[in-house]
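U., I forgot to send this yesterday:
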Amino acid sequence: MFKKLLPDWFKQYQSAWLTGDVIAGAIVTVMLIPQSLAYAMLAGLPPQAGLYASLLPIFAYALFGSSMTLAVGPVAIASLMTSTALAPLASLGSVDYAALAVILALLSGVMLFVFGLLRLGFLAYFLSHPVISGFISGSAVVIAIGQLKYIFGIQTPRGGIITTLSGLLEGLPTLNVTTTLLGCGALLFLFFARRYLASILKQIGWSEKSADLAAKLAPMLVVIVATLIVNLGQLDQQAHVSVVGSVPAGLPSLSLPTIAWHDIRALWLPALLISLVGFVESVSVAQSLALKRNQRITPDKELLGIGAANIASALSGGYPVTGGFARSVVNFSAGANTPAAGVVSAIFMAVVVAVATSWFYYLPHAVLAATIIVAVIGLIDFKTLQQSWHYDRADAISLILTFLGVIFLGVEEGIVIGVVLSLAVVVWRSSRPHMAVVGRVPGTEHFRNVDRFDVELVNGLIALRVDESLYFANAQVLEDKIESLVAESTGTHAVLLIMSAVNQLDSTALGMLDELEKNLQAKGIDLQFAEVKGPVLDRLHKTDLGQRMHDRIFLSTHQAFLSHST
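Result:
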């Protein structure tokens, strides 16, 4: 019975995979430590919350998820959304704030897990890529600007991006010089490492794989060096450099705070948005890595995996988690074969949390801010905007409006704008379906657009192909098109509607076709159908329109043309 509960990768595990998983797990741990601390700060939580969110969630995902290399834990976007959701509800750093973060993770986890049980994995495709790009890019800008106060050691009021920028300008005369030197030095080195370190290491003889991993682990080196500098120089006392301070040692206890109904009412929407964004981000990362090894992921299992990870994070005092892009890429590159690499990483993290949290005391907030800024700058996606602008302006406008919405209205408002725009673009496109009058390519049974090809026509017959399902948003457009064609033609005795691309016919469209058929009959014109798909035809036969037209529905356009040619 217990064996049935084990994931497939565990049942099929091979000893040859162990070395790669252990090495990858160790390397990801080195990367995960500073990220956990930094993202907890971004979420407005004490550093231990980030560490706790990097333990049990990894085990939970390994049990339920489908990706072999996705690294689950705290990420920048979820951390920002957590801070945005909780800021109006509790004081930053308070016990209530931390408790609400746990509840937020629990709600998100339950939602995702239930969605997985209901097999709603198609939600991964609910948001278009340009909208997700606009949201992530906007969030990256908000995060980066929000971290500048730590780089310069300036106190700024909480608020939107305008408030933050104004506070930074007003506080420049009071900046902490030592903090600024540490923060800017860390930024410069991290940008250098991101851009040039790998190529330099390759030139001096490092392998490509080792050089790339070393460049990605540069944040840990910065953290170690900065911590030593602050400790040896006692800069927290001598120069008032803000540091992480005491981090409680010991593994988290498994518990949940008291959950009140008003907390659920306040947090269900932020939890839903975090769930949606986190799931889409995770699936995108997992899918891109899986394709490189000819593997497959299952969106429904990803819902279960990310949901279980968030529930585990809540039980251990963490906050919402999801799959991280940078850590997953490192995990993949370091040779991870299965989720066992994540389990190894969690074990190493547990050791750190149990006995080594005192090492973080002198870690300056400015350096953590620098690691966040460098990480999120890479998320700003100019390429998608450029491609969308040249290929599809509607997608580009959706991207830009989502981006601006996140920056000037807020993270939650931005993602709501993105969802609305995604749906609006779908409705807008389908409400203006491509329609083409077609004729027969000479000597064939193929039919093409009369405006694009030299084709044969039948006198008195208008053959119109509609390349979209018919429903309330485009029914009138089709009716207007047919009436316009009839008005422009003389001697028309039949209108053939080619429905090869019509997958759905709703009641509004059916009503339109019913009235159109009657109106055309009154003018002595037959309405005819060709290439109606089976499911549409089955429903059509049950209607008055279908019964009236039973002898005017053709299997193919060619058959319809032959009936008018004889």
